[in-house]
Amino acid sequence: MKNSPRLLLLVLLCVGLGVGVLKAYTFGRIAFDAGNYKAARWWYGVAANMGDANAQNNLAGLYADGLGGPQNNRLAAEWFEKAARNGVASAKFNLSNFYEDGRGGTQDTRKAVALLESAASEGDVVAAFNLGSIYATGRDDFPKDATQAIAWYQKAADRGYASAQYNLGSLYAQGVDVPQDLSQAGKFFSQAAQLGHAKAQMDLGTMHAFGMGYAQDTVQGMQWLRKAASQAVTAAEAMRRIETVCKGTIDAATKALCQQPLSTPAG
Fold first, then answer.
1. Quick one: 144 and 115 in the same domain?
2. What is the pLDDT of residue 263?
3. How many independent structural domains does the chain possess?
4. pLDDT at position 15
């Protein structure tokens, strides 16, 4: 990467004045928090050129988002790569997105996967989830692998990541690429639903209401469907399913739930 002559001059001036990398990073952080992104670019640039990995990651983010100056995906990718090589887990995650989308360079899902695996091994739960998503669906330059998808989703699910729990439930419910297992689907939908995942609440409610993987329990099904109906992302479909339940043969307790007004969808 070609460094700006003005930035290099500033680095040399800062060194001459005794402004160390920590101070430069701190000034960048202060400027960023104050919304002065142009100054943040300068100070993070100083610290980044002096080898500060967190400054490199933050500078990349400013280039990626177009804050403090023009958006520049090429420079963002280059600085994310420097920060990733210096061990910043979030930089590995960010750079993986660039490789996956082909931002700032050539699309390369294998490089994205390698970076995500490194970040996930350091405890990044979203990286584990993203690995599951890539393996579950595949890419033009990367084959899908249901076994790997389940393994990575499971790692994220075990750490309470609701979207991973829901996706695992969906894999088992649909029985695509893996044997259908409604019992497993219900288990993972239940975990995600209890964490407030709207689609999990809707699908879990449907399973209970219509006896799919569970003994039919329209009351419990309606309770979950009503929760899903209170969330904007699932409100319309959940209400359609509630209407279907209420038109069927139902007991008095379910009928009472059908007659109760629904909460206004949030979000």
1. yes
2. 82
3. 3
4. 47
DSSP result, 57-82: HHHHHHHHHT-SS---HHHHHHHHHH
Domain edge (last residue) among 87, 117, 146: 87
Residue with tokens 């997105």: 97
Ramachandran bin of 85, using left for φ above 0, alpha for ψ from -120 to 50, beta for the remaining angles? alpha
Largest CA distance in the chain: 83
**What does the buried/exposed string (b/e) look like for 168-191 if buried means 16 or more CB atoms within 10 Å of the residue's CB?**
bbbbbbeeeebeeebebbbbbbbb
List, in order, residues 6 or more apart from 247 with CB less than 8 Å away. none
**C-alpha closest to that of 44 among 24, 17, 64, 73:** 24
What whole-number distance in Å separates Cα of residue 48 and Cα of residue 57? 8
DSSP 86: T
**Domain interval for residue 118:** 88-159
The H or E element that residue 97 is part of is helix 89-101
- Closest to 144 (Cα-Cα) out of 131, 135, 133, 154: 135
Report the pLDDT value the prediction gives residue 150, as an integer from 0 to 100. 96
pLDDT score, position 239: 96
pLDDT for 21 equals 74
Identify the CA nearest to 5 among candidates 66, 13, 54: 13
Q: Which residues contact 91 (CB under 8 A, 6 or more apart)?
A: 53, 56, 57, 60, 80, 81, 83, 84
User: Residues of the chain whose pLDDT is less than 70?
Assistant: 1-20, 267
| Predicted model pTM | 0.86
